[in-house]
Design brief:
By secondary structure, the protein is α/β, with parallel strands linked by helices. 42% of the residues lie in helices and 15% in strands. The strands form 3 sheets. Strands 4-10-9-8-7-5-6 form a 7-stranded mixed sheet, with helices on both faces. Bound molecules: pyridoxal-5'-phosphate. The site of pyridoxal-5'-phosphate has 13 residues, from α5.
Length: 421
């Protein structure tokens, strides 16, 4: 098929990266701890979302073979037809960990959004936050095609959300947001969202793909500000699950292909007949179900230690970034650190400097992020070391000295005050 037969979807900047950047569409030849080999180059990997480092954990790896011996490599049934016992075992453990009414497992979060958002919205109204993940937006667009009304409000603009909630005509109403935001690392003000949703009789649908496993319930004994147990944003903000559907996944912190919904039993029963992936999709591989169970064991035994190390690494990076006076979208100390580049610098040139110094990051081009946030994202995991963070900090110092990184707002103001004098 020729290129002219594919619709032009304004993805030029991304296509440019695909064609010209080594940090796009790369083939990884080897993995050694949190280093990867691409061709002849060994690079520190800051692009994976394996926040707890469970992809490399011996206890988790050892759990795979016995499960394969017992269950074979892959359950051949959709969930409606047959569930290896691993499924109810994980759902029970998750319900206890999250403190939710019940839990439903499906293979991926994308599948959940595409099937559950339309099933819950019906002919009602969906109100989506402007920075919510693309896969939530896709689920909402699909629901709109089936008769729902779709509205959008700008991030953090509770006044806009309230105005939309007040004017709603089609019910039911569901507000869709990210938990820990995948690009900024921000933890949203969940209590304010819940308050508004309850006041106006709406359901709150939260995708905490990046918070699950990292942030959890607060406690006076907590070893880091991430809280304890990594049981996600509802527990982190001490909310109840009333009027909230929480979605999360194991493909980030737990390094496994599986996703979940925390929901009341009545909604779970409804989705067992209304959500297509439960009825018709192939299931998660046995290896993933086994690594989730082993990961939950590790979380019980060592999870808070892993998170404490993750926090120490993140704090070291963020302190350096702040000392350099460069801008990051990260305000809450989560292990997702986006660093926008200066408007007069080229993303591919900056990424080549990072590569030459031995670092592999996630590039953030337009339209994935707004123009003034184009840059790169660093994800820390508990499998990184302090030495690796120090090496990255040294490259950031050089990039900042060259003026390649956008300065923080206070640093910009100070510079313009100096210019005026
Ligand atoms: C916030 C968020 N939601 C959903 C997804 C997609 O998850 P899955 O791979 O389970 O479909 C991602 C993946 O990066 C994400 O960051």
């Amino acid at each position: 098929m020729t290129r002219s037969k594919i619709p032009d979807v304004r993805l030029h900047d991304i296509d440019d990266l695909r064609l010209h950047s080594r940090m796009y569409d790369a083939v990884i030849d080897d993995v050694d701890g949190r280093r990867i080999r691409i061709g002849n180059d060994w690079l520190v990997d800051w692009a994976s979302c394996n926040y707890l480092g469970l992809d490399l954990d011996e206890e988790v790896i050892a759990a795979v073979e016995p499960a394969l011996r017992r269950w074979g490599t892959h359950p051949g049934w959709s969930r409606m037809l047959g569930n290896p016992r691993l499924y109810p075992d994980i759902e029970e453990r998750m319900t206890e960990l999250l403190g939710s009414g019940n839990t439903l497992l499906l293979p991926t979060i994308s599948q959940i959004h595409l099937s559950v958002i339309p099933a819950l919205a019906g002919q009602g109204t969906l109100i989506i936050e402007s920075r919510a993940h693309k896969t939530i937006y896709d689920g909402c667009v699909f629901a709109r095609g089936l008769g729902a009304t779709l509205k959008r409000f700008r991030s953090k603009r509770f006044d806009e959300l309230e105005a939309l909630l007040r004017d709603v005509t089609a019910r039911p109403v569901m507000v869709c947001i990210d938990g820990v935001n995948s690009m900024t690392g921000d933890i949203p003000d969940l209590p304010e969202y819940v308050r508004l949703c309850r006041e106006y009789g709406a359901l709150l649908y939260v995708d905490d793909a990046h918070g699950f496993g990292v942030i959890g319930e607060r406690s006076p004994e907590e070893p880091s500000p991430y809280g304890r147990r990594g049981n996600s944003i509802v527990r982190h903000t001490a909310e109840s699950y009333q009027d909230i559907v929480l979605v999360g996944g194991f493909s980030k912190a737990y390094s496994s292909l599986l996703a979940f919904l925390a929901l009341p039993t009545s909604v779970k029963d409804h989705l067992k007949v209304a959500a297509a992936p439960y009825l018709y999709s192939g299931p998660s591989p046995v290896a993933s179900l086994a690594t989730v169970l082993a990961g939950l064991d590790v979380n019980d035994k060592r999870g808070d230690d892993l998170r404490t190390h993750l926090w120490a690494l993140t704090r070291r990076l963020l302190s350096h970034v702040r000392a350099l006076g460069i801008h990051t979208l990260n305000t809450d100390g989560t292990p997702i650190v986006e660093l926008p580049i200066s408007p007069d610098h080229d993303l591919i040139a900056v990424s080549e400097k990072l590569w030459s110094a031995g670092h592999y990051v996630t590039l953030a081009p337009y339209p994935g992020v707004p123009r003034d946030e184009v840059g790169f994202r660093v994800q820390l995991t508990s499998a990184h070391t302090l030495e690796q963070v120090d090496a990255l900090n040294a490259v950031l110092t050089d990039l900042a000295a060259e003026g390649a990184l956008r300065r923080s707002i206070p640093a910009q103001r100070a510079a313009s005050r100096l210019r005026r004098r």
